[in-house]
Amino acid sequence: MLAGVAGLVAGAMSMAAGEYVSVSSQSDTEDADLSRERGELRDNAEAERDELAAIYVKRGVEPAVAQIVAAQLMARDALGAHARDELGLSESTTARPVQAALTSAATFSVGAAMPLLMVVAAPANALVASVSAASLAFLALLGAIGAWAGGARVLRATVRVTFWGALAMAITAGIGKLFGTVI
After folding, report:
1. Is residue 130 part of a domain?
2. How far is CA 45 from CA 42, 58, 66, 117, in A?
3. Within a 10 A sphere around the Cβ of 89, how many other Cβ atoms?
4. How far is Cα 70 from Cα 86, in angstroms, rounded to an integer?
5. Angle at CA 139, nearest 5°, toward 155 and 126?
6. Residue 62: CB partners within 8 Å, gap ≥ 6?
7. Which of 78, 143, 176, 178 could form a disulfide with 183 if both were Cys (CB 3.0 to 4.6 A apart)?
């Protein structure tokens, strides 16, 4: 149980740290893109308006109407219009490193706690098999719930998460066997 709790905490912290670093890098890239766009707007607003209008034409707007739309959007919020339509950035998709880290740690903890409960429930002589089976069953269940909640194909997601979870468990056990240690 102690090793399981330590693994849960270490895993949650590792997931949070990795997610924070990854999403912070994404945030840095977004900031750099916006900074570059600010400079382009400052140095050549007319070319930027034409660039925005071209985006709208590619989406099916008539060229004359696209020029009007681009001019009106830029008059109101030029950087916002380019961020959204040229760069694909919006308030709802902006990188949030702390939120991502906390979410990752929380979901990892919930997922890891489920098989850890088997340590309490399973008989000592069947502990490894019980925890392994429960881990795969919970992975399958969580994969199915996640797919269903996201509107994805449930069977495909369930098989994918279960397969990769089983592979990770097998590799981990294989490394333990190679070094003569139970992992």
Report:
1. yes
2. 6, 20, 16, 61
3. 18
4. 11
5. 125
6. none
7. 176
Amino acid (one-letter) located at 172 = T
Q: Which residues contact 29 (CB under 8 A, 6 or more apart)?
A: none
Per-residue confidence band for 182, with pLDDT thresholds at 50, 70 and 90: low
- Is 174 contained in some domain? yes
Count of domains in the chain? 2
Query: Given this model, what pLDDT does residue 119 score?
Result: 87
pLDDT digits (tens, 9 = 90+) for 21-39: 999 999 999 999 999 999 9
pLDDT 10s digits, 40-57: 999 999 999 999 999 999
Residue 176 domain boundaries: 122-183
Q: Please tell me the pTM assigned to this model.
A: 0.66
Q: Choose the final residue of a domain: 112, 140, 158.
A: 112
Residues 128 and 108 in one domain: no
Q: What number of other Cβ atoms are within 10 A of residue 123's Cβ?
A: 7
173: Cβ contacts below 8 Å, ≥ 6 apart: 183
